[in-house]
Amino acid sequence: MHPSISLAGGVEMPRCGLGTFKAGGTEVRGAVSAALAAGIRHIDTAAIYKNEELIAEALWDDARIPRGDVFITSKISPYQMGRKARQAAEEILQRLRVDFVDLLLIHWPGASGLKADSPRNAELRLETWRALEALKSEGRARAIGVSNFEAGHLRQLLDGAREPPAVNQIEVHPRWPQVHLRRACAEAGVAVTAYASLGCGQLLSEPAVRRAASEAGRSPAQVLLRWGLQQGCAVIPKSVRPERVREFAPAALLQGWELSAAQMGALDALAGDACKFCWDPSNIL
């Protein structure tokens, strides 16, 4: 399996990254340092995580890694959509101490302060997208995309966009595989990054997962991440424990093994007991 996904415009996004939601202080600095030591070169953050400055310290002060050697994803907060989006992006760049991010996403299809059924949500999505398109044209973001967008949100955006999103970052795991949404993304040429690949830890003890881990000589986390990779997704698991972060290394996930058709089928069957562990954007107009 190739270690990266080719996005529009020739941008290569590493398939294996580190998520940093709810990670702060010395923990996030340690996690980023462990990730870099393990060969992970994709760091995912967001304005709303409030850890971009700490990630910058880990990258530029602790590791002193060259800017071109790391792929950074960040996201525009739902509190800063519309006319605030451009300033929000500039603040992201300042906190990360970079001239550009590799991937900039709209974090959520709804704007904070609006009701879910407000038609203004769609207007603000497009207005925010226009700001992202301008930032990309100026070299402030190498690629732009969305997060938590349902198929309807994606269709609406595509109708008004000058260029399509490169990525949709969504919850994907065996209990919530999002087959139809991933198909809609594929048809539109939108790559998928999966978050919550471990089901917020709830899937690690599933018998099918543990059985595949035993058969493959891998950890349950690696089995779940490999399932996502074999579905064609990039994965951004989160941990602040260095020993866990090492399990997410590209060499451990991409090289020398794969899940068999039978193992994939057993994991796919978990969708029969569907469960979404994170936020639900389906009611946002």
- Corresponding CATH superfamily: NADP-dependent oxidoreductase domain
Helix content: 40-55%
Helical element count? 11
Give the DSSP E fraction (strand runs of 2 or more residues): 5-15%
Q: For the report, how would you describe the main beta sheet?
A: 8 strands, parallel
Low-pLDDT runs of 5+ residues are none
Structural class, by secondary structure, is alpha/beta
Task: Measure the end-to-end span.
Answer: 37 Å
Second CATH tier, the architecture:
Alpha-Beta Barrel
Could you name the CATH topology? TIM Barrel
Shape: globular
| CATH domain class | Alpha Beta
The tally of beta strands, per DSSP, is 10
Quote the average pLDDT: 97
Write the layout of secondary structure elements.
Blueprint: E1 4-6, E2 12-14, E3 18-19, H1 25-37, E4 42-44, H2 52-63, E5 71-76, H3 85-96, E6 101-106, H4 120-137, E7 141-147, H5 151-160, E8 167-171, H6 179-187, E9 191-195, H7 207-216, H8 220-230, E10 234-235, H9 242-247, H10 250-254, H11 261-268
Parallel strand pairs: 3-4, 4-5, 5-6, 6-7, 7-8, 8-9, 9-10
Antiparallel strand pairs: 1-2
Helix pairs in contact: 1-2, 4-5, 7-8
Site (Lowers pKa of active site Tyr): 75
Keywords: NADP, Oxidoreductase
Family: Belongs to the aldo/keto reductase family.
Summarize the structure.
The chain is of the alpha/beta class and 285 residues long.
Report on the structure:
By secondary structure, the chain is of the alpha/beta class. It has helices spanning 25-37, 52-63, 85-96, 120-137, 151-160, 179-187, 207-216, 220-230, 242-247, 250-254, 261-268, and strands at 4-6, 12-14, 18-19, 42-44, 71-76, 101-106, 141-147, 167-171, 191-195, 234-235. The chain has an eight-stranded parallel sheet. A two-stranded antiparallel ribbon has the order 1-2. The longest helix has 18 residues, at 120-137. The record marks 75 as: Lowers pKa of active site Tyr. GO terms for molecular function: oxidoreductase activity, acting on the CH-OH group of donors, NAD or NADP as acceptor. It holds the Pfam family Aldo_ket_red.
